[in-house]
Automatic annotation (TrEMBL):
Keywords: Hydrolase, Metal-binding. SUPFAM superfamilies: Metallo-hydrolase/oxidoreductase (SSF56281). It comes from Luteimonas terricola. This is Zn-dependent hydrolase. One of its GO terms (molecular function) is hydrolase activity. Residues 17-176 form the Metallo-beta-lactamase domain.
Amino acid sequence: MIGPATIFRQLFEPVSSTYTYLIACPETREAALVDPVMPAWQRDLQVVNELGLKLVMTIDTHIHADHITSASMLRREVGSRIATPALDALSCTDVPMEDGVPLQVGGVRIDPMHTPGHTDNHFALVMNDRVFTGDALLIDGCGRTDFQSGDARELYESVRGRLFGLPGETLVYPAHDYQGRWVSSIAQEKQRNPRLGAERTLEDFVELMENLNLPYPKFIDYAVPGNKACGQCPPDLPEHLRQYCQEMAESPQG
């Protein structure tokens, strides 16, 4: 179980409906942000400062296609180290994440778990009684598998074979939700996730994912190269997409 004094906050960025998670050690006051988002970087630092913490690390679960990470911005501002999947071999990475090799934030241990399928190098993060599932497992859903080397068969194995192997009471904190939901559990997703739960077979899941007919992601052509640089907003961003890089006018917090 997460200790009663362990510092944890769930923060929401409305443009991309992304959850950023603040994790901190109460003894050392060291903190990490999971999947920080560019428009919210000042909001995130404000929360860190208000809690009397020092941001020492940002952790991106994968190369995102729907927003740009603020990892590089935060490193420039406060010197936090950037953790990304080692398999992506990004030159801007300070801490290459590997499956089963713990990340340490003060006295808090975070265990990276390779969960490919949404992207080939996607990771989930296990921390005591909870798991940050990125885009692999969402509440009553899962991430797409039709771009960035996605693979429905791999995602099925990642979720059913790895994430669903965690204790049922493990809390599931996804990278996104589009219906105002905050948290689930492994037991709930195993039972009722309409894509991957219950008795869904591999063949059924592959057929389902191949026939979603989803639109081409509107920000992917800018987000992917920007995130391969650990968070660079392109100078040629069209007007209708500039909200993805502009500072938030409001700071909604979970």
